[in-house]
Design brief:
Layout: E1 9-11, H1 12-15, H2 20-33, E2 36-41, H3 52-65, H4 73-82, E3 93-99, H5 100-104, H6 110-123, E4 129-134, E5 148-151, E6 154-158, E7 162-166, H7 168-183, H8 188-206
Parallel strand pairs: 2-3, 3-4
Antiparallel strand pairs: 1-7, 2-5, 5-6, 6-7
Helix pairs in contact: 2-4, 3-4, 6-8
Length: 230
């Protein structure tokens, strides 16, 4: 499905009627058709850079929240991970801006988050990827009222109940918001410092037997995390 074929507003109940894998495939098509992808996130790790374990946590909570059969978790996880293939294409541009809170909010077991933070650290040196973190305490010129994704000139905003797409002047407003937030973020070595600090804060708890459940990292009992599909 191309960007022009997407209706401007969709409730989750309508969106998932075709199946959760089909939803992921739709986003996959959007991503592969785009040359520039921008993602501003204040709660979740951006979908394109999530580890398999983090994706699984997101999918399981979505499935439970919507009353779906948990048998769809693994196929949907695999479908989302396929989208990450485009990160290897140096002709595309990727910009991710997250609040420091994203690094500190545990939506998965600590050991899973540690691996997720390591994954983000690996992105910093990729020349076609910008990964910015807005540190705690920074005065912002604009409020990050919601997370959003920009596929070229299509803006998508998700909540836990619906999804809305914007084009034209409205999408341009999201580009301006992304510009303003990126300008207040830190990248490169400064971002690496924040990622390292977040990981260091997790390690004492991650080593506690009552917190780290090795059997939960990849299996069906992985703790949940509320999330959306993009």
């Amino acid at each position: 499905m191309t960007a022009d074929e997407i209706p401007p507003y969709r409730r989750w109940s309508d969106k998932h009627r075709s199946g959760r894998v089909a939803v992921q495939d739709r986003y996959d098509g959007l991503a592969r058709a785009s040359r520039r992808i921008r993602n501003v996130e204040m709660v979740f790790v951006p979908g394109l850079v999530q580890t398999p374990e983090y994706v699984r946590c997101r999918m399981r909570e979505n499935v439970r929240f919507n009353g779906e059969d948990e048998s769809v978790v693994e196929p949907a996880t695999e479908a989302r991970l396929r989208r990450q293939e485009i990160l290897a294409d140096p002709t595309r541009r990727f910009e991710f801006v997250v609040g420091e809170s994203v690094l500190r909010t545990l939506l998965c077991p600590p050991a899973v988050m540690l691996r997720q933070l390591d994954r983000l650290t690996q992105l910093i040196d990729l020349p076609h990827v910008t990964f910015g973190i807005i540190p705690f305490g920074v005065e912002l010129p604009v409020a990050p009222q919601t997370s959003f994704v920009l596929f070229d000139d299509l803006a998508i905003v998700e909540t836990f109940v619906d999804e809305t797409q914007y084009r034209g002047a409205q999408a341009a407003a999201y580009h301006r918001r992304a510009d303003a937030l990126l300008a207040e973020s830190v990248t490169g070595d400064a971002a690496r410092v924040l990622l390292t600090a977040a990981a260091d804060a997790l390690r004492p708890d991650a080593l506690r037997p009552d917190v780290l459940r090795l059997d939960a990292l990849d299996g069906p009992d992985t703790p949940d995390a509320l999330g959306t599909d993009a």
